[in-house]
Write a structure and sequence with these properties.
The protein is α/β, with parallel strands linked by helices. Helix content is 41%, strand content 20%.
Length: 358
């Protein structure tokens, strides 16, 4: 999973990047400290992976990973490529989703580029820049498609209709993910339009608490999701030893899922991802994120394309039953292992052995 960070300058994007990846990107009270895109990755914590490996004495554990791209803060004109952030928007086109960081904290030492703290207005400003960037890309594409459509090419005519539907949404100030037809929405995704990507608004809070007024409503109107995170506090806790951090987090009532894991969980929910595992014997146990509703053969293709092409069957056991049995062989003896065909819909926490023929 690859996430792209967007937001106005001094919203806390790079602080969130550091929190997730453990990096040390420069964070300062002045704007545009991030000039070149930052890239980093973080393991997705999942105690089930260790349980599967421990039960079978598997030494190597390979968790799923989240990759993140942080670009400079956006400003008016970014959609036309203006400014450092505008010039870097293209870096986000191949990401799976966008994380839109909204400043919801008060700190007089950290200047807001628009001289006020209004997270909903910030959300609207950046959303319009993303829509403007998509409109410019759409216009170039539409000119090429129109020429082909004049010749009577059915594919070009179909694409022209999709582009018209996308354009109508953008002109109305709506993101491409809310285009009227399913075909248009799929086309927008294929074009890597920024406003077609799933969007998660993260309100950067002063302290734990509810979302500021209007953010959840705005997110809903844009076909997106939102949650709040006190990024500054979480960064401070990340610098403490685990016991001290846990004690302070309890005092602050931060909840059981907080910090980087909270962002990962919200991102999985946004993309409707689930996890299956491989690891029935050494050398490794591995976690694989896939879209919910994925069939067994497509899940096998996530591991290797040869497995999808030559798929024969999958041996499947729930992770907890495998751990209780102690091995795949013992789980077979207790009849907890099932044989499934390619149309089987993989379930959360399945451990799979793929049988295939190259």
């Amino acid at each position: 999973m690859q996430l792209g960070l967007v937001g106005l300058a001094n919203s806390g994007k790079t602080a969130l990047f550091n929190l997730l990846t453990g990096a040390d990107g420069e964070v300062a009270a002045y704007a545009y400290t991030t000039r070149e895109p930052l890239r980093g990755a973080a393991d997705v914590p999942d105690p089930r992976l260790d349980a599967i490996a421990d039960a079978q004495d598997i030494p190597r554990r390979v968790p799923a990973q989240v990759q993140m791209v942080d670009i400079a803060g956006l400003a008016a004109g970014a959609g036309r490529g203006d400014g450092i952030g505008g010039a870097a928007l293209g870096q986000l086109r191949e990401t799976d989703a966008l994380v839109h960081v909204l400043r919801a904290f008060e700190n007089a030492e950290v200047a807001h580029p628009l001289e006020r703290v209004d997270p909903v207005a910030d959300a609207e400003a950046v959303d319009l820049e993303l829509i403007a960037a998509d409109a410019a890309q759409l216009e170039r594409r539409a000119e090429r498609v129109a020429k082909a459509a004049k010749s009577g090419d059915p594919a070009a005519n179909a694409e022209a209709a999709d582009l018209e539907a996308i354009s109508a949404a953008l002109e109305d100030g709506r993101p491409a993910r809310l285009a009227e037809t399913e075909s248009a929405r799929a086309r927008a995704s294929e074009m890597w339009l920024l406003s077609a990507k799933p969007m998660l608004y993260v309100a950067n809070l002063d302290e734990p608490g509810p979302l500021p007024d209007g953010i959840e409503e705005h997110a809903s109107s844009m076909g997106a999701q939102a949650f709040g995170l006190p990024v500054g506090i979480e960064l401070e806790l990340a610098g403490l030893d685990s016991e001290e951090a846990a004690e302070l987090a309890t005092e602050l009532e931060l909840g059981d899922t907080r910090g980087a894991p909270a962002l990962v969980e919200a991102s999985y929910h946004l993309l409707d991802l689930m996890t299956f595992f491989t690891g029935s014997a050494p050398p490794e146990a591995r976690a694989w994120p896939i879209p919910r509703g994925t069939s067994a053969d497509k899940a096998a293709g996530k591991i290797h394309t040869d497995m999808e092409r030559g798929f024969i069957r999958a041996e499947v056991v729930s992770w907890d039953k495998l751990v209780a049995a102690g091995s795949f062989a013992k789980a077979r003896e207790t009849a907890d292992v099932r044989m499934e065909g390619k149309d089987y819909i993989v379930q959360e926490g399945d451990v799979m052995q793929i049988r295939f023929n190259v």
